[in-house]
Amino acid sequence: MLGVVAAIGAVLFLFPLVTDMMIKVQGVEHLTGDLRASFEPQALAQTRADMDMVQAMSNQLQSQTLPALPNALVMSPNQFHDYMDQNFPDVVSGSDQLDTILPKFDALVTGLETQAPNFRNADQIPTNFLPSTVVPFLFLIPGAVLFLLTVGALFRGRPGLSRAALVAGFAVGLMFVIAPLVLSVPAKAKAVDDLTVAFGPVVTDQGVAAVRSDMTVIAAMSDQLQTQTVPALAGALKMDPGQFQDFMGQNFSDVATGIAQLNAILPRFEALVAGMEANVGNFQLAANIPTASQAATTLTWWFIVPGIALILLGGIGIAGQSRTSGVSAPEQTLETV
Fold it and tell me: With a threshold of 0.85, does the pTM exceed it?
């Protein structure tokens, strides 16, 4: 009985070491720390507003503004296209790619909104006041205590020490069964799995490189649009900046509003992309808890199964010792008489 308890203690102690859990939970802590602000309700609302603003600007730019400008500049559509292509290549390139780029950013924003509850659940492992770096010690400390107690009892052969080891095993078993349920570990572990599935295709070296490439196109387009294209168009239309702004506001309000807000919107998207780039490795570490081939939900069974085994072993062992001591006392009395 004690030998089995000792073996379970050894397995619990070795589990976080063999699976590199110490390193993985450090990655989780960095990941959640860096991205926590992005999942706050206010931040999500701002990101959605930014996305909707850029989408509305893009829609009007392509469907109304660009088609209307040749007439305003007294050019044919081909002449206008050549003029734009020669003078503002980043704007042309960006506008041509908007229908491809913006749906990908919109999917990312939708993913943030959809997965926010899962992020908050995962961010509370093991509790909302303890960091995830505590998790390995939930196995290491009980495992070490059980192993040392039971090995000591086996080698010293003292009934008192044996009983202490069995009681400790029973207590650890209860803790391993009850604590995960009280702390909602199954739900939190499932949240981790849902997050890694949802963002797995994006938060890779290749996926983040694609997001960075799209962000570069949008940033270049925005910079040239504000610093070169708008002043040039205002001059071509013989308007000062105020008049041109009024003209755009009256005729293309979404474009005018979008351009005015780009300097605030793009840094927020840039921060999100930079956060993804910085956490590709941390995300992969989180996705591999407990191992690359096992879902995070298997962590629940790493608590429950050893817990049940320890309860049974400890309970049976304690009951057996109690019966033995109960029989020995009368026998010893009769022999003495």
Answer: yes
